[in-house]
Amino acid sequence: MTKQIVLAGGCFWGLEDLFRERPGVVDTTVGYTGGEIPEPTYENHRGHAEALRIEYDPEQTSYRELLDFFFTVHDPTTVNRQGNDVGASYRSAIFYADEREMREAQEFIDLVNASGRWKDPVATTLEPLSEFYEAEEYHQDYLEKNPRGYTCHYQRFGSYLGESPKAGENRPGRVEIWPRSVFGWVSVGGLGVFVVSVAVFLVFIRLGERGGMGFFSNLKLALPALLASSGGLAGLVFGLFGIARRRETAVLVVLSVLVGFVVSYFVLGEIVTPH
Fold first, then answer.
1. Which residue among 6, 11, 109, 112 is the active-site one?
2. Which SS3 state, helix, strand or coil, does residue 235 take?
3. DSSP of 170-213, one letter per residue?
């Protein structure tokens, strides 16, 4: 006879994708639970967490082993946030069905805190399991249907159950600031592009003034750099707040920044090259 466990740790797409292949996992279903709104939907599930219901074979895996994996594939120390997704929907939570599960979950949280692998204490909440509402069909097995879809989940460590972190994985006191997704890189890259582009913009204006050019002529020459800085700022905002949930959109932001820089390079060449 199979058993079930319900977990929440950010966007349910990535969480399901990693648990699906675990030994002993029979089936996975994404949905909403932990809120008060009846019949929640993706557009309106206030108070509910994006959650994953896992059906498993207790002869092949255990509740404790599934918790162990859960605490290696998401950041349990962030409150109402996972990666670039912000809000109560993305909280880290364990929904227990009885006192035994609640006790085991609390013991495992204590184990994670004692491991020293995170610089901040675990913020995962323990909540009694109420009704679980299955999410819309297009959310089920989302990353199987859309292999290039968004995820911020990956295995950060080895097991907490008597094993040390593997080589190349995070060590105690060393937690990655940015999720290993395109949006983290867009955030960092966007900030750099914005700073550099503003500097180039000011250089254009200064060179134009030295050449005796009028204000509007200066602005015309400096416009590509200004556009590049706007693209960089957009990348920063998109990355930080996860406005875009698809990689294709992030790629478009990056391309717009690159185009702005290429144009800026040639314009700068026209200014500084003697005629």
1. 11
2. helix
3. --TT---SS-SSHHHHHHHHHHHHHHHHHHHHHHHHHHHHHTT-
Query: pLDDT tens digits for 142-193?
Result: 999 998 888 999 999 899 997 544 433 443 333 333 344 444 555 556 666 6
Task: Read off the pTM.
Answer: 0.62
Q: What would the pLDDT profile of 66-120 be if each residue is shown by its tens digit?
A: 999 999 999 999 999 998 899 999 999 999 999 999 999 999 999 999 999 999 9
DSSP state of 71: T
| 70 alpha-carbon distance from chain centroid | 16
What is the third-level CATH fold of 3-145?
Answer: Peptide Methionine Sulfoxide Reductase; Chain A (3.30.1060)
Number of helices (H) and strands (E), helices first, in the chain? 7, 8
In this prediction, residue 176 carries a pLDDT of 35
Per the annotation, the verdict on 11 as an active-site residue is yes
User: Considering only CA atoms, which of 228, 230, 214, 225 is closest in space to residue 267?
Assistant: 225
Please report, as a single letter, which amino acid is at residue 177: I
Domain ranges of the chain: 3-145, 182-272
